[in-house]
Amino acid sequence: MPIIEKSSYKPPLGLSNPHLLTIFPQVFRRVKGINYSRERIDTPDGDFIDLDWSANGNSRCVILIHGLEGHSNRSYMLGMVKTFSSRGWDTVSMNLRGCSGEPNRKLRFYHHGDTEDLDTVIRHTIGKGYEAIVVIGFSLGANQILKYLGEKQDSVPQKLICSVAISSPCDLFSCAVKMDSRSSEFYRIRFLKMLLNKMQLKKKLFGNEVNLDGYRIIKTFREFDNRFTAPFHGFKDAEDYYRKSGCLKYLDNIKSPVLMISAADDPFLTEECFPFDIASNSRFIHLEVTSGGGHMGFVSFNSSGEYWHESRAFQFIQEIAG
After folding, report:
1. Residue 16: exposed, middle, or buried by beta-carbon count in 10 A (0-12, 13-18, 19+)?
2. Strand ranges of the sheet holding 48-54, from the earlier edge strand across to the other edge
3. Does residue 2 register a pLDDT over 90?
4. Among positive and negative, which fits the CA dihedral 133, 37, 46, 221?
5. Is residue 79 within a helix (H) or strand (E), and if so which, with residue range?
6. Are 301 and 15 in contact (CB under 8 A)?
7. 3-171+251-321 maps to which CATH number?
8. pLDDT > 70 in the chain, percent
9. pLDDT tens for residues 284-300?
10. Which residues pair with 53 in a beta bridge?
11. Where exactly are the structural domains of the chain?
12. What is the pTM of this model?
């Protein structure tokens, strides 16, 4: 308790393959009608974060955090914005460092375990005068939220009333092994291409601080994280980064309501990412594992255009917020 034993999600007929569910929204979904207003805020270390607001003077606000190499205009972000905007909430979509269309100022960029920027955005949003805020994260963003809630167990701002974590890679080591396997080659190639392109931009900005010698032979996440993520962010190596940045070891400390949604057939996640034992002993973690859905692919076909996880997130938050 509280484990949701029977999820209401069922994939559409003909779209039950987890890879199809994962890819379909990225390729075919279009969410229209969202008009952002951008705000740039400074970070304590002299960098910046770009926030995209959809605000209409409401008293409550949702903070959204994207996944690896995402940004505020991904369909999964826009879909959630539309869901909450249509129900009387303001939203602010956080672009992680270097993901807003402009390189960030520092050598560092973003990673799974970075919770300081999230804290900066939460406190900035609270400073706007909202009565209540919630945070919703996808994949990497979901891991950041869960780690944040566990790290800050006794100092989570009171106005942060609850959170939703969708498709979180809770155990980064096992997920990296899975993503570096042959079965995940399609996804790995796509992500590494985007990440390595960013390292080329870093090279132009920081010169000899970025070593690109032989970078084209990098074929795995472990190699990339050993070469760039770990040293740029103060970790010894990839294993040290995975060990310290995964949210799994922080879940026991969470003292704020959070809904964790993941699909049992998620091609990115491992068994360790479904913390049934922890959730069963927690008053705060609501774990819902659907039988299908792939990675953030909870596709629904209906007149509203709303996907299942968007309706489910609102339902959970409404139960808490009233």
Report:
1. middle
2. 3-4, 285-290, 258-263, 160-166, 132-138, 60-65, 90-95, 48-54, 37-42
3. no
4. positive
5. helix 75-85
6. no
7. 3.40.50.1820
8. 100
9. 999 999 999 999 999 99
10. 37, 92
11. 3-171+251-321, 172-245
12. 0.97
CA–CA separation, 298 and 11 (whole Å): 7
Strands 90-95 and 60-65 come out as parallel
* Residue 273 dihedral angles phi and psi, to the nearest 5°: -85, 5
Residue 34 burial (10 A CB sphere; 0-12, 13-18, 19+): middle
Tokens of 50: 């770009």
Phi, psi of 112, rounded to the nearest 5 degrees: -60, -35
Structure tokens, 134: 């919630």
- What is the per-residue DSSP string for 243-299? HHH-SGGGGGG--S-EEEEEETT-SS--GGG--HHHHHT-SSEEEEEESS-TTT---
Q: Provide the token pair at 188.
A: 């790995």
Name the band, by pLDDT with cuts 50, 70 and 90, for residue 104.
very high
**149 vs 6, residue with greater confidence:** 149
The whole-number pLDDT of residue 1 equals 52
